[in-house]
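QA checklist item 7 of 12: single-chain prediction sanity check.
[x] sequence parsed
[x] length recorded as 239
[x] structure emitted
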Amino acid sequence: MVVLRSQQAARRKGPATSSSATPTARHSLSLFLPVLLLLLVVPVLCFMVASLPFVSGSFGSDSRPAAGRNRAVAVSMEAAKKTAFTQGQDRVKSGDQVLLMGHLGNYINAEPGVDYVKSRAPIQADRSIWTIEKIGGGPISAQDIVYLQGYRGGYMDVQGDMVRIKMADKPRCNGFVLTKGNDPKTSLTDYSPLVYGDIIYLRANGERNTYLDVEGQDVRARWPDEGKWQVITIQKPEA
């Protein structure tokens, strides 16, 4: 009888112990899962943070918009092409003798005995030859300030809108800014080297900033424009 009661008591005690262990196991599992997730996530976050300098160095070194970067690259490539192209051509240098042909095909020339500058005929005469100079000498490029000396001395100069030969030393003359317009591909100012056969514009280096223009035989400097009447072709005199 006593044995039977003991067995019954043991059976009742056994299930009670088993049921009390189940919440403990669940509690341990609930603590283990966050720790496991933390161990997995932390290395990934560390890797991402360590990669940020590399990403910013690769893609953030140039803060300009993509269009600006592409434009700068295009300008650089175009300048390199022009430099390579002009290396095989005859560049104009300070001290060279040149011819200046207006848009009508006549040469701009000094007049003997007077200070007028005209554009009378397509003849390569002495009066049509100019010595082109720049401060410091060397090859000439667009945007350089140049001085044009006539065949009898004196320098071409602008007074108001009149173009004259000024019989004075170069430092007392204003000279001209030699331009080649804008690059047709980039629409930016052209700074390329000057070679024979180039189309140029001559802007008076003074307060009015007007360009030489040819109308009939007259050479004036009336407007701040690079138009058809202002077109000049620089040529090399025939030997």
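[x] summary fact logged: The first helix runs from residue 2 to 59.
[ ] second reviewer sign-off
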